[in-house]
Structures are given as structure tokens and as C-alpha cells.
Structure of Fumarylacetoacetate (FAA) hydrolase:
Amino acid sequence: MDTWMRFMSSDGGVVFGRVEGAYLHEYESLDQPVPTGAVLSTRALTPLAPCAPGKIVALWNNFHALAAKLDKPVPAHPLFLLKPAGSVIGSGEPIRRPVSYAGKIVYEGELGIVIGRRCRDANVEEAAQAIFGYTLVNDVTAADLLNENPHFPQWCRAKGFDTFCCIGPAIVSGFDWQSAHLVTMLDDVERQNYPLSDMVFSPAEQVSLISQDLTLEPGDVIACGTSVGVGSIKDGATVSISIDGIGTLRNTLQATVREAPGPGVTATGVTAGLV
């Protein structure tokens, strides 16, 4: 197995490569995994989300145990929504509560598939070859918004806020997902512990079937769906999602602090010109 990460360097540039111990062996990019020859100390770098997806395809009802608990039929085709690229953050970055939302925020610990090559109308064998590796995803949801309007379930709005897609800490290629378990901790309490082998659609099947609906590009992420144990996050609480062999994705829900608008300050409390 190889471990791949993205970092920000001291000059503000972004570097990507294979990590061995405390060193990054730099590669051109995820879709062009050609070594540059540079070897950098990770101690001098700032970790980022391990990829920059153009889109995140997030599955629903893809585990037999959760389908049984919800009394839902197993789907014949992956049921999915899209999360925007702007919702992505890396491990250690805060999940920010939206200024306009005081309701329940929910975590979902999931395996993430990272696409390594353009994929369209792929069969299962071709789809397997298009998988660069695997990562961890926290598919965060503003749960009270989903059915706020009785005429239109708001999946994209509820799951698409900035910081609502935590990805990381690394991508691991050659990972044996079939023998792995995912564990989610809320602060110090275990909330999820489920086998990835309980998936309805395998990773290769997901890539193949989804590629028949839309083109998957290098760096795109498929969040494989979650199983039982989903719950809400209180402000200040930390969600830690782990899979042995990939690592731990850890993010804390940060309450939004409102500020009275003043010179150079917007109504959302962000100083104008600094972001």
C-alpha cells in the first residue's frame, strides 16, 4: 500500500506526493503520478485535504444493516447526491456552523473512493482500474433542512455548506477495503463500528454504475454511504473517523460567532478583503 497526501508549502504552493515516514516524495499530480524527484520534510508543510475534487458523489442507502434498520429496500442502482467542491476541508480543519442555521448537524463516517482517471460508461473491470485509492469522508448534514420544505427534499442545501465535506487525512492505494471496519468516535464515545464488506455496491460497482450517469474525473470522490450509528454533533464536539490502514479524519464543529457589522466587516462576521 502507498500513502498519498497534499500539503501547502511555506511559500503558499500546493504539493502532492507519496509519504514515507516524515518525508513527501513529490509527484506531478494525482492524475499524472510522475515523480518530480523532490523529497520534502512533512514537518515544514501544512496538511490539506488529500485531493481537490471537482465533485463529491455521496451515496445513500448503500449498507445492508442501515437499510434493514430503516426498513428500506436495497436499491438496484446507487442512490446519490452531489456535494460541491467548496464544501471540502481536510483533517484538523473546523466544521463551521452556518450563520443562518441553529438546528441539528449530523456526522456520517464513510469510506471515500478517489478517482484516478477519467471514467465514463465503464464496466466493472475498467472501473476498478480507474480507482486511485481510498480515503475517509465525514458527510456532514444540516439535518433539519432536509424536509424543511414539504414539497422538495433539500439534499444539496443540507449537505453542501462550506466545510460540510471532511476528507482525509490521506489517500491509500492498494487498500483491502473488504476486510476493514470503519469506526466513528464522537469526542471519546464510539458511535459507529461497521464492516465495509456490508456495502450493497462494491467500490468498483459504484464507479461503474455512476460512470453511466455522469463522467468521473481524476480527483473526484465517491463517498460510499454510511451504516448505523449516525448522530448529531454539538458545538465544540470532535468527530474522529478511523479505518486501520488509512488513518484518522478528525474535525471539530465550530459555532459561528456573529459580529455587528462595522467598517470592513460583513454581516456574516468575516472581515472583508481577508478571504
